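[Automated response] Your request has been received and processed.

Submitted sequence:
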Amino acid sequence: MIRLAIRVQREQAELVLAELLELAPSGVEEAEVAPDLVEYAVYGAPGELPELPDLKAAAGGALVEISTSELPDDWSERWKHFHRPVLVERPVDGGGEVPALHIRPPWEAPSDRAGVCEIVIDPAQAFGTGAHATTRLCLELLLELAVQSTNQGAAERGPLLDVGTGSGVLAIAAAKLGYAPVRALDNEIESVEAARENALVNGVDLEVGHFDLRRDQLLWEEPPDSGVMIANLLRPLLLDLARKLPGRPRDLIASGLLAHEVEEIVDAFGARWGLRERARRSGGEWAATWLSVCG
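Generated structure:
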């Protein structure tokens, strides 16, 4: 097993990460190695790793160093130290029936807190363990949406579609919060398999399928202005989604965005579908937005 690491300047790190995720959609490891340096790393056999010219192009002027190293036999145990549980608190303004979410790898113990929903995700399989800001921001907005549904006295949460599901963590969280049916789509076969396996581990029913946004026709089977869609995708794919949606969901949670990209996405879905921003969350350089029919 090879570890391929790239060090970049801190002030441009989030921009570089957005580019790296296109080269390594299963995710990258992140570590701060100095106040002004961030290291991103990917693991795999030599033929599975991104090409060096592609990495250099993705990093651009932020590049400091690229290095490769062969991992020792106990690398799988050492690697576990990089993946820690994530607790996403529920909103404080109501929704007593809505739990907090505790996302953890299978080797970590469950939370000992009351009112917490456990989600177990194997980080070795696909991108999206709850640790990255884009995933956490989506989960925060999903909890806020669930609280709204509870406060409005809705008997059922309704259907939900997760586009770009990765490990399935967002779809699994939605199913545990009471959304049904839940569909999860991804263009990576490994992610489709991982989402199915993680759904089984978590005891939830997901309809998981392979889908390429740039090639396939997305099927939105719900009645107009109903259902929820989550799309944790990079900016170009979210713009494609705004153009190609066959119908308007009641609510849309979009992330995978740098903070300065949000307005463009809000405008795109507003102009095409009349959706209006209801809430926005940010973490570091990343941001997520909740758009709604009601605005």
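Summary generated for your ticket: Residues 262 and 287 are 7 Å apart (CA to CA). The mean pLDDT is 86.
If you did not submit this request, please reply to this message.
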